[in-house]
Amino acid sequence: MEKNAAAFTVTKTILNKSIQDCNSAMRSLLKDSGVVDYDSMAPGERVELQGFFIDGTETKISAYRAKNRGDKRIWFSGLKNHAKPGDVMALVVENGKLIIKNLTTGVFILILNIGVWGEASKWIG
User: Fold this and answer.
1) Closest by alpha carbon to 89, among 3, 13, 1, 16?
2) Residues 76, 83: contact at Cβ < 8 Å?
3) What is the pTM (predicted TM-score) of this model?
4) Which residue segment(s) compose the domain that 57 sits in?
5) Above pLDDT 70, what percent of the chain?
6) pLDDT (tens digit per residue) in 29-77
7) Element (H, E) at 31
């Protein structure tokens, strides 16, 4: 995985309840990219961001700390339209933009439909 990307696996809970823990790789990516630093957020604090799915569809991203326990969470609007349970996704920071890519299905669409092997090869090793 590129250093400007962090992976997460989609679960039924993520899709059905729109709740997802922001894993350490995503938190590091967002902090190192200067987007958001969860460590400086107080419980209940929320940062709204704009991002895009690989097909260009806009997504609203909510990075927040849960009010009671302070869990570090992230939410992507429209994720249900771009993933199913078990899919591996990547949150990518490219040229200051947040992009969400489906590594389970999206890579192969890039290869077969667009033929961008150089771009796609970095996602499949």
Assistant:
1) 1
2) no
3) 0.79
4) 5-124
5) 82
6) 999 999 999 999 999 999 999 999 999 999 999 999 999 888 999 999 9
7) helix 24-32
Residue 74 near residue 62 (C-beta atoms within 8 A) = yes
The residue to which tokens 């033929």 are assigned: 115
User: Residue 116 and residue 46: Cα distance in Å, rounded?
Assistant: 37
Q: How many domains does the chain fold into?
A: 1
Would you say 36 and 63 are in contact if contact means Cβ atoms under 8 Å apart?
yes
Can you give the length of the chain in residues?
A: 125
Question: What CATH number does residue 13 fall under?
Answer: 2.40.330.10
E strand residue ranges, 1-125: 5-9, 46-53, 58-65, 72-76, 88-94, 97-102
The rounded radius of gyration (Å) of the Cα atoms in the chain is 14
In 3D space, the residue among 28, 10, 6 whose CA is nearest the CA of residue 19 turns out to be 10
Q: How distant, in Å, are the alpha carbons of 25, 43, 108, 118 from that of 123?
A: 16, 34, 10, 10
Residue type, 110: L
